[in-house]
Amino acid sequence: MNRRGRVIVASLAGTSIEFYDFYIYATAAVLVFPYLFFPTGDPAAATLQSFATFGIAFIARPVGSALFGHFGDRVGRKATLVASLLTMGVSTVLIGLLPTYAQVGVVAPLLLALCRFGQGLGLGGEWGGAALLATENAPPRKRALYGTAPQLGAPIGFFMANGVFLILAQSMSEEAFMSWGWRVPFVLSAVLIMIGLWVRMTLHESPSFARVVAEGTRARRPVVQVFRTSTGGVVLGTLIMVATYVFFYLMTVFSMSYGTSPDGLGLDRTDFLVMLLVGVVFFGLFTPVAGLVADRFGRRPTLIAVTVAILLFGFALEPMLASGSTAVVQVFLILGLSLMGLTFGPMGALLPELFPTNVRYSGASIAYNLAGLLGASLAPYAATKLAADVGLWAVGGYLSAAALITLAALILARETRDDSLEETPTRARA
Asked: Residue span of the signal peptide, if any (predicted)?
């Protein structure tokens, strides 16, 4: 058996490192890559091209979820989590060593896209394994709370990523930062990866997977079987996560792009990073709160209430973000990222609970990452186009529409709080 404290640390540390890797790219996609990896001339076009490479990872993530999900359900959670962390880490470090467009021309954005694909591949296998590590080792009636451990990796990783960029921006000149300083967060990832690997190598397999091995009920082809027996879980899990993904990338990547753009709010880069970091603190605080509430009242009631709030928040996006008041924009970020914590927290338990043990890694990972492909891959790009061509009100409408899709899926879904994760595959519901 794994000690519960070690389980929480391992799931939290791994996702924090992987989300750190993922978010330093998101930050650099706004602040650095449009100027160093794409032809100069039209800043808006370069930003859109940078966001396009940002979206490549979300195409890779479902591939990663199928690849790592197969081995997670066949070989085990522990070995697969180590492999996914290595894949993500190597790709991130390589980004910090890439030549720029001025040095090698069109080869630069191609190499950037390849490394971004590797990041998506690794993260595609990371989240599902970390969520299973937490929930399959959780005590009764505390699965949602334990499931928030990997979810906390998102605000912690985001805070670390933007904190490093903020320190660099304030400690060196603009020329030094654009010349070599931006590479530091990517190369620093190597140290974090070594720590994450050490933590995960000390774990044992989860009791649920060990039971499947002992009973000889491992799926021969987990990805095929999950679509054959649990299609409903994949579809509903994907749609339940869509609003979460759209919301997060509008609140972070798009808001930072709009907030620092001369055509938007025109705020100083470091000032807006500080404002985002303040909002992310509330993201982290409300994530475990959501787990406690979901354990007490159930996953569906909790998420339905939060999703309605997100839908209404879409109507407040334009008047708050375009208010011209720094204080109002800060309140906008705090409110939005607080809601983000409340909707993101219960997902660490809900998605694994939709699937039987022998295909749980594949099922939870595929649903989570298909939602990323549908909800997050286009969010910064689509929001930037909508804001430029139609107006900020259309960005708010985009968020409300995504919330409406998630709300419909939650109404159709069943409550999973009282389901057993030890249910045998022959008796598990699809």
From this structure: none
